[in-house]
Design goal:
With 365 residues, the chain is α/β, with parallel strands linked by helices. The protein folds into 3 domains: 10-82; 111-170, no CATH class; 173-359, 3-Layer(aba) Sandwich (Rossmann fold), CATH 3.40.50. The protein has helices spanning 10-31, 36-50, 59-68, 84-100, 139-150, 193-210, 245-257, 293-308, 322-335, 347-359; strands spanning 72-74, 80-82, 111-115, 118-127, 163-170, 173-180, 215-221, 225-228, 263-270, 276-278, 284-286, 311-317, 338-341. The chain has a 6-stranded mixed beta sheet, with helices on both faces. Strand 12 (311-317), helix 9 (322-335) and strand 13 form a beta-alpha-beta unit. Helix 4 packs across helix 6, helix 6 runs parallel beside helix 10 (347-359) and helix 8 runs parallel beside helix 9 (322-335). The radius of gyration is 26 Å and the shape is flat.
Length: 365
């Protein structure tokens, strides 16, 4: 075996460490809801406290690095703001972080146990049908059938002689990710909104790259529910809001039914019981102290409607209060869906593993 030695370049190590620190900066940027100046302030404090690079590289040089690489740029007033490249790096880092916690082949592909019009060729064949592609014809078997059916002297090939390869069917899926942005998502000093945003971003990035025919929509819900543009997800912040799960499920159904896919599913990430509802007459009713039937019953009814429309609901609870479990168990039973009680550090693993299961679960011809 031949070995080739090259001159050591310390710049390579420096660049690798700067990239690692850039990923740390992206984490801070997520936590500040896209506030670049605040994220830089936190980064500087960490830089000085931990003495990154042992003082050989200053924090100012790190800021210059972010600008030179095109992650940040100055606006008209001289303030730094994130660029399109920086926004893409946020999403890519979110996907990388989620995938790093997954077991090998946890995602798999969007496959079913059914054959049909798809991509991967199976060894089995079936008779040719109108609409089948010429490229899928098994010519050897088709010619053999023609010889058996018509003889070698009067050799002809008809439609009844043709067979085509079976294909492994790959379904399409519409996914709605519901993110709770109520006050409790950062209550008591625990940041629950950032992991939820990371999961939503990673799902979008994965589906866009691996399953371009699929769709994923993100819905934020607090006092009300509203659709989030994909570009806004990293900067989503929770506020002094209540939890209107009823509105979130209603909007999710509207969005999913507008998507023309074989499968539809809802992923709901929440840490609180429903505390608010907008009634039919437009009046707002809320109760933050207990499970109120006036709020719970209409919310459960929406879960039933989802089931009738073949929309699966998978709920990821990032809290374990008895009130929450009681509500989630009732909602899950009504929808015949699933519920996970997840820690924040394993939220992404649960969501992505379940995405793969739901994505290949059901087949419609």
């Amino acid at each position: 075996m031949d070995y080739r030695f090259e001159k050591f370049d310390p710049q390579t190590i420096k660049d690798e460490r700067l990239e690692q620190l850039r990923q740390l900066f992206n984490q801070l940027l997520m936590r500040t809801g896209g506030d670049v100046e605040e994220a830089l302030d936190w980064m500087q404090r960490l830089w000085e406290y931990h003495n990154f690079f042992d003082g050989e590289v200053s924090f100012g040089e790190f800021k210059e690095y972010l600008e030179e690489k095109g992650y940040l740029e100055q606006d008209e007033d001289g303030y730094l703001e994130i660029t399109q490249k920086g926004d893409f790096s946020l999403r890519a880092d979110a996907l990388l972080e989620i995938f790093s916690s997954l077991k090998k082949d946890a995602l798999g592909d969007h496959r079913t146990d059914h054959s049909g019009i798809g991509f991967d060729v199976l060894p089995e064949t079936r008779p040719f049908e109108f609409g089948d592609r010429v490229n899928d014809i098994h010519y050897t078997e088709s010619i053999k059938n023609a010889i058996i059916n018509h003889g070698i002297e009067n050799f002809t090939v008809g439609q009844d002689d043709l067979v085509v390869y079976e294909k492994e069917h790959q379904t399409s899926c519409a996914t709605a990710v519901l993110i709770d942005i109520s006050h409790s998502m950062t209550l008591y000093g625990e940041d629950r909104i950032t992991p939820a945003k990371q999961v939503a971003m990673a799902l979008q990035q994965m589906i866009r790259s691996r399953f371009p025919k699929d769709s994923v929509d993100v819905i934020a819900f607090g006092d009300e529910a509203f659709l989030i543009d994909p570009s806004e997800v990293p900067y989503l912040q929770n506020g002094p809001y209540h939890t209107n799960t009823h509105a979130a499920l209603q909007l999710a159904q509207q969005v999913l039914l507008s998507r023309r896919h074989s499968n539809r599913q809802i992923f709901m990430i929440t840490d609180g019981k429903p505390t608010q509802i907008i009634e039919d007459d437009g009046q707002v009713y809320r109760n933050t102290f207990q499970l109120d039937p006036r709020i719970i019953n209409p919310t459960i009814n929406e879960a039933v409607r989802c089931r009738r429309r073949e929309i699966d609901i998978t709920t990821f609870m990032i809290a374990s209060d008895p009130y929450l479990r009681e509500f989630i168990e009732e909602l899950t039973a009504a929808n015949q869906g699933k519920a996970y009680y997840s820690s924040l550090d394993r939220l992404g693993e649960f969501v992505f593993a379940d995405f793969a299961k739901n994505r290949r679960k059901r087949f419609q011809g």
